[in-house]
């Protein structure tokens, strides 16, 4: 952002803030009513943000639980596959051992 654009934006925001302040000061309504409207507007905005934050928090927690369940499922699947592979390796080694025993028995005679 160039310096002149920044200055223009700052001037615009400052003018808007001053205009809003003057509008509140010179409003045709009583000060009590204006303050009540401002407070009500602030409370509504605060409640909306709190609801959005609670909703986002609940969604985040739900996503964490889903990711955890998915990770646990993947881990169990990996362990199961590793167990099957281990059984395959043991069976292969037992077959080779049996073959070697037969060859060894032939040499012993």
TrEMBL record:
Native species: Flavobacterium restrictum
Keyword line: Membrane, Transmembrane, Transmembrane helix
InterPro entries attached to this UniProt entry: Desiccation-related_membrane (IPR052928), YtxH (IPR024623)
Lineage: Bacteria, Pseudomonadati, Bacteroidota, Flavobacteriia, Flavobacteriales
Top-rank taxon, per record: Bacteria
Pfam families with a match to the protein in the record: YtxH (PF12732)
Name used for this protein in its record: YtxH domain-containing protein
Record flagged with keyword Metal-binding: no
Transmembrane residue ranges: 6-27
Record bears the keyword Phosphoprotein: no
